[in-house]
Amino acid sequence: MASRLSESSDASSGAESVEYNHGVKRKPERYSFDDSSEEQSSKMPCLDPSDSYYNKDSQSEEDEQKEDNRDFETPNINSFYKNQFNLKSDEEADENRQSSYYRTSSLSEEDKDDVLEINNDSTKKSELNKTNVGTAKEKNDAASKAERMMMRMGYQKGKGLGKELQGRAEPVSASTQKGRRGLGLELKELKNAHIEFNPDEEVVEAQEEILWLDNPYKDSPSVEEVTEWENERKIGPCKKTIDGEITFCDEIVVKNIINSKSVFDRLDKNEMRDARTRSNPYETIRNSIFLNRAAVKMANIDKTCNFMFTQPDNLQSDDLLYFADVCAGPGGFSEYVLWRKKWRAKGFGFTLKNENDFKLHDFHAGPCETFHPYYGPKEDGNVYDPKNQVALKELIMKQTGDQGVHFMMADGGFSVEGQENIQEILSKQLYLCQCLVALMIVRTGGHFVTKLFDLFTPFSAGLVYIMHRCFDQVSIFKPNTSRPANSERYLICKGKRPDIDHIVDYLFRTNKSILKNKENDKNDILELVPVHKLTSENDFFEYLKDSNEQLGQKQIVGLKKIAAYTEDKSLSEIRQKTMREECLKHWGLPDDARTLPRRVSPSTKAQELLQKSVNVLDKSAVKDAIELTIANVKSTILVNEHDWFCMPCSSGKGITSNGQEDEAPTFYLGTGRYHVYRYKKGSWEQIGNSAIELPRDTLVYAEMVTELRKEGKSQTKTYGLHILDAFTLGAEKVSDKHITERLQLVRLFCKALWKPVQQSCYPVRVKELLAVSHHLDEKIRMETKSMKNGTKVLGYFPYKHSYENDDNNPYYYTPRSVIFFKATEEPWARHKSRTNQMYFFNKQNRQSLWEIPPTAAVPFAKTIANRIIWNWPSDKTFSMNDFINCIKQKYSR
Question: What is the pTM assigned to this prediction?
Fold first, then answer.
């Protein structure tokens, strides 16, 4: 029975009495106790926690408002006495307690004794007990004074509390509730989880082995064989369960997987995730320095496959690494590849737009500037759409010289909450389209990796078989970074074979049939290759069956472990820290936290990059260059014209006086994406309107060029950044290389930055580097063009690169100067042999070399500082014919 203590203050103070129930401040009741009054007994306080503690019928609105606004607190009773009554001794406390007002006007003497016994301290209680001795029968019938009081208030033993005896008859048992489970919910499946989980069945190692299945056939499947598959494949009602799929996996394993998953059907998701986090020995690896865990999965797979993705054998030293990332937003796979290869990798992304899109702004580890998202002609990124598939292929083939990408990654998936057991059935078209696109865009000898789930159905098995026949080797692999308890696994295909167009056509037709019959569950394609064909291929059949059973057992162990950790929250995987360290080291990843790139001022960044060469900034203006004239040509360039190279420029003499300062050659600094700065009049200014995109830590010498297309009234004008030379390219220092090597890297750099479809930013191009010779006039390709205002100008048409997608509408610009760079450092000199091959000759030691000696290269800073500008064709005193004649006269002697 709850103890109740009331305080009565002086009447003159106007303070109302206050009661404490279990230490909680409460308002006194407005009723009296009278056993003989049925009406009053209906207003008795209900001891059921669900009922109101006192009768509000007798309360005024004012009292109710006060009750609602009262703060509940749990004071210490002893401190309450001292604070409220200013008691200093036990005697004073006794005196105050005896003078307290209990509303006992209608209570019997025995009830008064009961109240006093319950509320007074142990000493008083002992004394009162002596004066309230009942018969032995009363003591046996009523176990306590509280129970006797309840019986007088209408309580009947064995029945519920309340006016209608509607309360529960049994007291609430002690709660065994865990986490956010409902009160009283018991999951019988979890009770023996700690017994069912056997730690010895779990394998935890940083190094993993991958098992490859070799393709025994010399050639790809013939047209006749593929036609036979198509004619014999099974079509019927769409399957709704996975239970009966036991051809490619042992029946017991399939049942155990389903049963192990069903344990968590009624479990709160947060509770399950907490147990999963505590139980997975690889959980704390997480995303490392990348935007998500997918990036670390790709690093895991790449290392296990001996880096065949980021370091393929068929990659030429002077080419980019081309890759595609399909159904892979937000782009973790791509961020890893770009981190590993920097700007030397060119990526093509294809994924659903909007909420599933690539998050390029979160690519902190790698340069997103060389990654190009594409969404197809409908701009939706739907990989099921045949038109999107064809458009993606055309785009990639154009950018790669009809070769295709070196490898493709696919990581598609969607929520199957509540349908986890049939995830494979729901994902069959996604499986199909990811493999189809890979066969369309991966080059011969290239590789492919895609995420799959269960592989129990004939449809999935047939698709894996087709990929097995189209590549040299395949493997079904579950990396450490894939959580043990899920059904996720990866199909890795190595070495794509040629002559598979008819297989692509077959899968293409299959996808169109699935789309056509999307709403017709009775005409579902259940097979891609007849089952009897799959089971007759012994090596393939045994490989797939063993893989399903081994991964199934691993999943069962993982599910049992989560169940054990769910039931016992004190369990924690102690190997997480060790496995994180070992795995990251094994994969070659830094054991660091993900951080935002450091932002510094452009002047600070330029000083960090240039260091001792920072003074070259003072030589960037056009006026600082040496002007070429007929008077100094022989003492400069014609000393040895083979040591010099030149470039036609759209800027020239007087450009700073006609309001075209922004187009003059100067330094451009990239600090990531659209944060690009131009050095102008001794300071750095940011280029607005997101006009140019450059990777972080890029410093180049370039000019902004007005690019013209067509002529007359149809003439259009755009802008482009043309690079003349480079100090660093995406944090890669190239300044000490020979200018021909620097420009070769710049060409590759611009190729990586090129956006194949119309973009809001300006294109970044490399200037054409021309050797100085008496054929210079032939190399500078000029045509007369009509401007919109009718005037005639000479237009220079630069060399067209294969990756540029404007062949039918080439650009040109009006040259205003030719800039010369000396490329060979003393005492070396560049000469032409009798067979017209260039070689290097050392004038001091008489040494001759075909290759460029490292000491023969004029570094970037010196090249820029000693540049020479010829204001051609506006210079009427020194024409192109004059220049060519000077060279010819030199050799005619």
Answer: 0.79
